Amino acid sequence: MVKAKAIRVHELGGPEVMRWEEVELGDPKEGEIRIRTTAIGVNFIDVYFRKGVYAAPALPFTPDREAVGVVTAVGPGLTGGKVGDVVAYAGNPMGSYAQEQILPASVAIPVPPSVDHKQAASVMLKGMTAHVLLRRVFKVESGHTILVHAAAGGVGSLLCQWANALGATVIGTVSNEEKAAQASQDGCHHVIIYTKEDVVARVKEITSGKGLNVVYDSVGKDTYKASIECLAPRGFLVSFGQSSGKPDPIPMSDLASKSLFLTRPSLMHYTATRDELLESAGEVFANIANGVLRVRVNHTYLLSEAARAPADLEGRKTSGSIVLIPDTDS
């Protein structure tokens, strides 16, 4: 029986409930592979599951849904993958905060040799999220004016870069001057420091009162009303997170006043088939290769110290992406 260490959550709560424990892994079954993890992405969805905002399948569980690793074993009869391949995954199943993991082969995405493992781990979930938000949920085109909340965050940074390359006018909101500088580097034409400026007033000024085609909002409770007010008639509010808490119930009248559209997309529904998954990941890797996307791995922690990462993430002490590197002890 293969043994490895992993972060385990036995009860819901703060970062202190994350424990570094030994787990047992069986051999991969038909249609499965086992990987030795080399880099793990950290995402706010990890916080949601640990706190119980989203329901984990069961307790205890190993958090997160994004990693890169080297294939160490393949299930019987599996073709198309072999020991030694470098693969990434993002989405289901949960359990990437581990030195080794068993995955369905259908979710494994080949990582191009030109892409560093830490880069790939930091960009798979966030990058495919950005692809889905910009190209499928609402198709951003040249001439559109968009707002990205948390523009210096992991997804926000990629949204700004990609939307700028598509020809959109990009407005970003951030909390301080340091993050404003990063957002500008990442393609924001206008940066609003929401701790010092009125977001709605600034958007009206920037758009000459016309409003926005789309708002990408991962913050939730604190930003919902401003997001609605900033939209042009027939605009889209794309809510894809709630880092500040769950928004209050939304009256239909809030949408009716300007014939607005509201959507709450999940990446898993847009990468449900193998073809959709590979298309989305392929777009991400292609845009890294051609320079459209610059991946910012600004914070690295050992996996055994994983509790520090979400604490810093929740405390808004981070920018760009966070990566965990598995400890080498067994």
TrEMBL record:
One Gene Ontology MF term: mRNA 3'-UTR AU-rich region binding
TM ranges: none
Entry GO terms, CC: cytosol
Signal peptide (UniProt feature, chain positions): none
One Pfam family hit: ADH_zinc_N
Residue ranges constituting the Enoyl reductase (ER) domain according to the UniProt record: 13-324
Origin: domain of life: Eukaryota
Keywords: NADP, Oxidoreductase
Description of how the protein assembles with itself and partners: Homodimer.
Listed name of the protein: Probable quinone oxidoreductase
UniProt lineage: Eukaryota, Viridiplantae, Streptophyta, Embryophyta, Tracheophyta
